[in-house]
Structure formats: C-alpha cells, structure tokens
Amino acid sequence: MTPSATARRNWIYWTATGLLAAECFVGGVMGALRLQPFAGVVTHLGYPLYFMTILGVCYVSAGVVLLAPRLAVVKEWAYAGLMSIYAGATASHLWVGDRATTLVGPLILVGLTVASWALRPQRRRIPR
After folding, report:
1. Domain regions of the chain by residue span
2. CA angle, 33 then 92 then 27, to 5°
3. Which ranges in 1-128 belong to alpha helices (H)?
4. Of 4, 11, 78, 116, which residue is the least packed, with the fewest Cβ within 10 Å?
C-alpha cells in the first residue's frame, strides 16, 4: 500500500472511530441518565427505562475500548456489542411499525461500526 493510501485509510478509520466513540459517549451518558429524547423512544419501542441504564454503561465502555491502545480482543467484543445494539434498534423500529426514515440513524451507525472495524490498523487487530 502506498503511503498516501495508508494515510487515507488511517484518516477514514480515525474519522469513523472518532464519530462512533463520540456517539458512544454522548448516547451512553444520555442513556445512563435516562434523558430525553431517548427515554421517549425507548418507551415507544416497548422497553423498560432501566434498559437505558444498562445500554448506557455498555455504550460508554465500548467508546473507551475503541479509543484505547491495544486491547484487540476487547475491541472485537465492543464492535460485536455495538452491531448487536444497532441491529436491535433497527429491528425494534421495524417491529413497532415506525417509518423507514427512523432506520437511517441506526443504519448510519452500522456503517460507521463496519468502517471502523474493517479499516483498523494491524496493531489494533487480534494477532494471528
């Protein structure tokens, strides 16, 4: 890979990872504290409010792990957890009959998660 291609790949990786981590921190704190507008969405989807606290702690933990050096195995779990959360959000909106536009947010987050995972540098991967 040429130096410019490597630099571009790293830039895209860090942009996707930074946006994802920011969402994890902001969304995690808002969830853990059960703040609006997310509390209304969670109730609309049929989940109990304490679910927000559980997911909020998981979100913040994932954000920390994604930005931390090393921890390759834990990063894999964080990526898997985020994909599960976003797939669950997408399915939940479909189940309650929400409009297709409500799927845009979770699907963008799926895209950021996949980009961050696929483009991560070798030193952030599980050694083979």
Report:
1. 5-118
2. 25
3. 3-32, 38-44, 50-67, 72-95, 104-119
4. 4
